[in-house]
Amino acid sequence: MFSKRRAAVITFALATAVVAACAKKAPPPPTPVVTVDSTAIRDSINRARMEQMRRDSIAQAEAARRRQQQVADSIANANRMAAEAAEREAGAMRSTITTVVNYDFDKADLRPDTRAALDQKIPILTANPALTIRIAGHTDSRGSGEYNLQLGQRRAAAARDYLAARGIAASRVELVSYGEERPLCQTQDEGCWSQNRRAEFEITAGGSPLRRP
Predict the structure, then answer these.
(1) What does DSSP assign to residue 102?
(2) How many CA atoms within 13 Å lie on the side-chain side of 49?
(3) CB 133, CB 94: distance < 8 Å
(4) What is the DSSP string of 6-38?
């Protein structure tokens, strides 16, 4: 009787062990081995480097082009500003040369303001020896036509002689008289007559370019 029980216990234990063994998880499959193509990796890295070098080269060339353009623009702007300044200065000098001077009634004497205007012309004429001018004498409408032509001539000559006495060759100055023929205004009063009693200056040669005194 005892032997039968013992046999049953052993049988049950063996069965339990078999079931437990069967219940264990199957082992995981082996990890696949990945083969790395080192040549392909190197080629990919090299291509990336070459592409970056190309982009860097393009960026550097563009930066250099922009710098060159900025320098060129700066030079062009400076030249333009210098040319404009020179033209303004030349215009101011031409304006000084062509400034009209005035005279008192029936006189060719130089007034203080007339002398001052002539004094401003002298440095420009001295600095530009090729510059020649024409001085035209004018009068108001009073007096005869012949007398006014002579008066206009004396006024122009007085201005020329003043310049010549200060070193401007008389040969550089042409004289002409229009007398009363070219009035600035026609009103018969002193305000108008005073404007007509004048000497006008015209540049006849050597006016471009003008050298600064």
Answers:
(1) E
(2) 6
(3) no
(4) HHHHHHHHHHHHHHHHHHSPPPPPPPPPPPP-H
State yes or no: pLDDT of 59 exceeds 60: yes
How many angstroms separate the CA atoms of 124 and 92, rounded? 11
Distance CA(75)–CA(195), nearest Å, equals 47
The rounded distance, in Å, linking the Cα atoms of 195 and 152 is 13
Compute CA distances 55 → 41, 60, 63, 66, 69, whole Å: 21, 9, 12, 16, 21
Residue ranges covered by each domain of the chain? 93-205
At the fourth CATH level, the homologous superfamily of domain 93-205 is OmpA-like domain (3.30.1330.60)
The pLDDT tens digits of the residues spanning 168-201 come to 999 999 999 999 999 999 999 999 999 999 999 9
Pairing of the two strands 132-138 and 173-179: parallel
3-state class percentages of the chain: helix first, strand second, coil last, to nearest 5: 60, 10, 30
The pair phi, psi for residue 70, each rounded to 5°, is: -65, -40
Structure tokens at 202: 């015209």
